[in-house]
Description:
Chain B: Its main location: membrane. The structure holds two protein chains of two kinds. By secondary structure, chain A is an alpha+beta fold.
Amino acid sequence: MRRLPQLTITSALVLSLSACGSDAEDSESADLTVWFMENSVPGEAMDWLVEEFESQHDGASLNIQVQPWPGIVELLQTSLPDAGQTPDLVEVGNTQAATFTSVGAFSPVDDILEDLGGDSLVESGLEAGSWEGEVFAPPLYSGSRILFYRQDLLEEAGIEVPTTIGELEEAAIELNEANPEDSDGFTGIYLPAADPKTLEGWLFTYGGDYATQNEDGTWKGNLSSPESIEALEAAQRLMEEGSEYVQDSNEAVQAASELFNAGNIGFYSHLAFAEHDIDEELWEDDQVGVMPLPGLEEGEPGVTFAGGSSMAISAASEHQEMSQEVMRLIYSEEFQTMLAEEGWAPGNLDYAGGLEGPTSEAHEIAVEASQLTPNTPDWGVADSAMLPAEIWTRIGNGEDVEEVAAEIDAELEEILND
Amino acid sequence: MYAPAPPTPARASRIRQRVTPYALLLLPCALVILALGYPMARQLVMSFQEFGMAQQFGQPPEWVGLDNYLSILSDSYFWVVTGRTLIFTAGAAGATMIIGVGLAVLMQRVSSAVRVTLQLTLIFAWATPVIAAVAIWRLMVDHRHGVVNDVLAGIGLSGFQGFHWLQANTFTFLLVGAVVVIWASTPLVALATYAALTQVDDEVLEAAQLDGADLARTLWHVVLPIIKPVLILLAILQVIWDLRVFPQIYSLQQGAGSTSETNLLGTYIYHTGVGGGSYGMASALAMIMLLLLIILTWRYVRILSRQGDLT
């Protein structure tokens, strides 16, 4: 019993402290936190953002934290609702945005949309970040997977540069067998199951999809459709006959450019920024070629996943006005241009001029022909249950394609129609 | 003639003796209520609500009565995961106890230099942070460069060349999980049992020897009854820890092909709640798991609390 008074004092303290917290809104001494994702915004742009913000706002500080992609939906779900824990601004993947915009986790930015680029913002990105007519998460950048390939190895093996996805499969399988420089652990194409974003290129290019929406708004698993089955079978054959690192873990996928530099990979699929990870020497000696994923017919691009990120202000943030200031800086010409230089297609198309270098042409084609995963708040749930990775892992392990497709279809329908 | 007797010092001390235990209980009880009571109460309430992502961000939740419980109990996947968890717990806790007690008996019978080395090794295993331990084991069972496959292939089992333990099937995944768990929890069992063994009176053992009992009979009929309270306590702890195992399985799942094929109750609750955004459902699941744990350990906790029956 004697402890009780102390308890009351403690809770009174806690209460008054949290009261202080809300008083501090938008004062000059605000400390803001921004979460960017790994492999996303270049460090140079982050430094610029901090310097610029802090020089414009005396006494305010900006703290940037970089979060890993795996597990981010869980992390955001538990951090965003709590004013004490939430970052003030977050970067979210475009396919994850709906999970949060639909439940009011973000503050609308319609009032400042003109300052952020207005009509110059990528339209599909704006759509992905809107909910019931309000814009919450404008597009930060978009990017699609492209193929880097060793043209010298193709030449040595006497293989033509492929122009259709079918030819690509043949070329990778042939190259895998030829292994022209006789290197240990050589693979025709690097196609790990833990990289669903690359493998989705096969699914979409063959005309398949994970799920389609019925007229009544419910979702139907679509992996068992003839087009999807064709795609899954093509991918399975390629993983079995043309690829050696199918079971690589997520960590290994992140470091695969090392394998490419060591001459162990013929075809390497990655985002455009991977051009910076490839050895200078390989570029100088003209050993590396870049192309978009080819389509079913010659001259037609393949359809890859329309990757991209959006920025949003947490609704629970105590610094709403200051956060809008940070948004203005992120959508400024300087910041967007730095994103373009990194190899992304910036959210504001006016600043896409910064896109240059060996990957820009292929990347532009890939982005134009890209496609989103099913756009529903529940896709974030399917994603966090690692369903996309599961499909490709099971197919890569040689399981029966039609069986896997039917099973995952059922699981997808359960999650998406929840 | 008779003045009322003043309270004697003896009586005051008796009162103090009666109050002191309760005063001492107050702090731990208050701490437990603070740290566990509130979340438990919230969990109980939420298990009767439809509580999803929208509620997490401030929408009022809807009462659904027993709906969450009914849909869990009628879901065949729940029973698969529960069965899997019980088998995992029995296997891991059983193996931990057997290996741990075996090591303790061994420690009694080796020279002190060997014993100290063994104890130090065990303490290192005990002190390794869970996530670090999982990372080490993941490297060891790596399909491409792992030492486990190298050794197995080296002794002629060429089928293990490139074998992916975490992706091959549910059994091999849980086997790796169990090894990580057993590896980390054996030291406590071994050291605590060894400590208990040192308390066994030498004279009792000598008497048994004089009566002609061999090692197995001495251990079974003389030593075991004496250290039984410690063993029961350790076994209960193992069952509790292994039933609610989470970080090991969750980290290993990052390298597995399928979460649904590798879930135990702990990770299933996590993926349902935090991953899937169905907090109401996850709360109901957690309540069921708590009930399961109580059913499993109830008898032994009661035995333990009636200490008189144990010795």
